[in-house]
Design brief:
The structure holds three protein chains of three kinds. Chain A is 32% helix and 28% strand. Chain A contains nine helices and twelve strands. In chain A, the strands form three sheets. Chain A has a six-stranded mixed beta sheet, sandwiched between helices. A four-stranded antiparallel beta sheet of chain A has the order 2-1-4-5, with helices on one face. Chain A has a two-stranded antiparallel ribbon with strand order 11-12. The longest helix of chain A has 18 residues, at 172-189. Chain B contains 15 helices and no strands. Chain C is built from twelve helices and 13 strands. In chain C, the strands form three sheets. In chain C, strands 8, 9, 10, 11, 12 and 13 form a six-stranded mixed beta sheet that branches. A five-stranded parallel beta sheet of chain C has the order 5-4-3-6-7, sandwiched between helices. A two-stranded antiparallel sheet of chain C has the order 1-2. In chain C, α5 runs antiparallel to α6 and α6 (160-179) packs parallel to α12 (290-301). Classes of the chains: A alpha/beta, B mainly alpha, C alpha/beta. The A-B interface holds A 47, 50-52, 71-73, 75-77, 79-81, 83, 85-93, 96-97, 100-101, 103-106, 108-110, 149, 152, 156 and B 75-76, 79-81, 204-205, 207-209, 211-212, 214-216, 218-219, 221-227, 264-265, 268-270, 272, 323, 326.
Chain lengths: 261, 328, 307
Amino acid sequence: MTSLAATAVTAGYGSRVVLHECSFSIGAGEIVAVVGPNGAGKSTLLRVLAGLLRPTAGTVALDGQTLTRMSRSALARRIAVVPQIFDTLFPFTVREVVALGRTARLGAFGRASADDVVAVDRAIDELELGPLATRRIDRLSGGERQRAVLAMALAQETEVLLLDEPTVHLDPAHQIATLELIRALAARRELAVCAVLHDLNLASSFASRIVVIADGRVAREGSPVEVLRADLVRAVFGDGLEVVARDGHPAVLPRVATPSR
Amino acid sequence: MRTAAVIAFLVAALVVSAAAGILVGAVAIGPGDVLAALFGSNDVNGTIIRELRLPRVLGAALVGGSLATAGALLQGLLRNPLADPFVTGTSAGATLAAVAAIVMGLAAPFVPLASFAGALVTVTLVWRLARVGGGTTVLTVLLAGVVLTSFAGAVVTFLLVSSDRLALQLRAVLGWLQGGVSVISWAELGVAAAIVAAGLGFALVLAHRVDAYAFGEDTAATLGVDPDRTTTAVLGATALLSGAAVALAGLVGFVGLVVPHALRFVIGATHRRLVPASFLAGAAALVLADLGARTIIAPAELPVGAITGLIGAPFFLALLVRSRRIVL
Amino acid sequence: MRSRFVTFLAVLLLTLAACGGAVPGPSSPAVTASPFPATLIDFQNRSVTVPVRPERVVSIGPSITAFLFALGAGPRVVGVDDFSDEPAEAATREHVGGIKVNFEKVVALKPDLVLSVKFSDGTIEKLQSASLNVLVVDPQTVSDVAKTATLLGKAVGADGEAMGRSIQQRVDAVKAKAATATTRPRVYHEIDASDPAKIFTVGPGSYINDLIEIAGGTNVAARAPSAYPQLSAEEILRSDPEIIVLAADAYASKPADVVSRQGWSIIAAVKNNRIFTIDPNLINRPGPRVGEAAETYAKLVHPELFR
């Protein structure tokens, strides 16, 4: 079973420490949502998990192997990252973008093997991008572009999928559609998924586990029911929120001010 | 297949423009005589065609191909359709190094080497500045280019005024700053061709990795590209190509900007196709521009940089206006 | 482009002209001084009056300086341009600039007469507006030289006419002797090949073109559209010069450079090893040494007649 584990990770930029001794892990078939207020260190945590940022202390290990000892190419075959920014000024087609997922496996001069073609076709099918395959990425809607970049990550055929706020540019209907898609893919491909999410309710609905980051530390980790409790939510996110139960999932809502008479 | 058709067309275009470049010159020589000359007639025509026109046409092709390829690489690496060796100040850095080499009295074969070193230092500086600039790299790169170009220009002027060795070569250096293909000998062309071949080889090997930079350096890394090594290699290839181009022709602007940009609309953004296509199209374009430089105001000659600037500058402005939402 | 050309011309204008003090034959200067005030027509067809014998003269133009010293007016020259180096004594005078004239220096020298070559950038007008008396003297051809001697003589009060006559006689002698030659070899005179695709040479109306003809040669660029045209290497190869003349200058091309130029091995002058160098100050400046210049050139073109 795949497992990506952070152990007592401290990390930051220059002299600024952003994460303090964070520990948690993701296993195959799991969807872990990382939530927390702005500036808590969620994106930094994702960069550390992706091997993009070297921890100053502690380790991140994939099945026991420390990430910093692996080459970029080896990492790219096992961990895929869906970036938050997917703007490009260049007219790549959707198919070309998906094929970028095969970069680490291409032959000399970028020659694609039969496996590469199959993987790209499969990712395109799974995200129903067939009709858009020859369209230019810079001419697609935000939701379509999101799907193309997700397909790029899938084409990497990794065990781990990391997503940095995958719903941030989408309307509510597309947010839900995207997360349902990710959940279905995670189940089908036995992926270990870790997504930074802003919306606590989306996290509550789709994640099997939630990690709350506050001030660079893991404030709480567990199932949505365990984590999204009124005291913790208020302590981390502010007083103006309340938590209600709905179909077995906790839902976080703004507290309605009682009109004073 | 569309790419094959485009490549075939570009090869044909290069052959046709090269033929035109060899047919037309300061001295009128009929097509039959040109053909005879190419295949070894030993009269004056033979010498003019084989020793003067042919190296010049080949030189122009090398310069145009190198600049366009370097432009494609730089644009991909910096995620910036407005980058090329000229705009980023890379060519100016190469020119400065070459002039400095002349001032120091280095022998002729070292001049391309010096211009390569100058290009490498400058392009690395631009890349670092672009990284510091963070999100708005397009603007940062342009500003860095402006600053580096004026700095290099100032130092060149200082060297010109203060060095008596250069004082009498003033015109040669000014000509260099304006851009003009002047091939002195087959040996010089051979050295340049070897440097270009190395740069082009690197470019072809690296092309598919440059694609991975489409969504930024972090994403390139998570796609499996070692960003430090690949960036260094791409900058090195760019410097080889720009250095050779500057050593042959001085400051020729906008070829590296316009050619890859226009080609993307035809064959797409994938660098595996864009790099070879850029080399062919850039080569054909500069052979034609050089032909124009030789003939438009004949018997006098224009610097080829004037031709490319005349066509390239408006194109650059149009591009700037169109991409302003990303630039600003 | 334009500024480059203007710069080139400016350098040319200032270096073209003049020469050695030790030269022109029998003229014994400054005996029969012309009476002042003298009203003269200068090279820009302006009427200029020199009220009294000038005692403080500024000379802008190497050929003018050379004439002044040859006419015996050297002691009265207080300022010269940066290029004036003939005779050697001339270079000891106050320098007033080169391509750009330093107006403040000129004014500070309090000259009662300024002699200058032509400028296209308003320099003459600016000097005049500083209340200076400016006479423009700008010899460009061999026939200008005698006229220049006469004009300068009148301006400074020396016998320029005699000097002009003796110069003309010496030139005419060369011309007459060269005319007896049975051949008129094709001559290519190189001014600057720093851009090998566009080499500067001399065309009709230039001083050196005159010298080539007087020396009994045929300038390969005799029908070029301007006095200092640019030729492509193609045209030079096609014209097949029998004699190539270079400036004997530290930074100019050497005969060995010419031999090794791509394709030039088919040129007759290269095959027959008839590539010569010549002192640029002698032949670039239409000055009192024009007779010597013509003789020197003739020795290159017709060595069988002149030795």
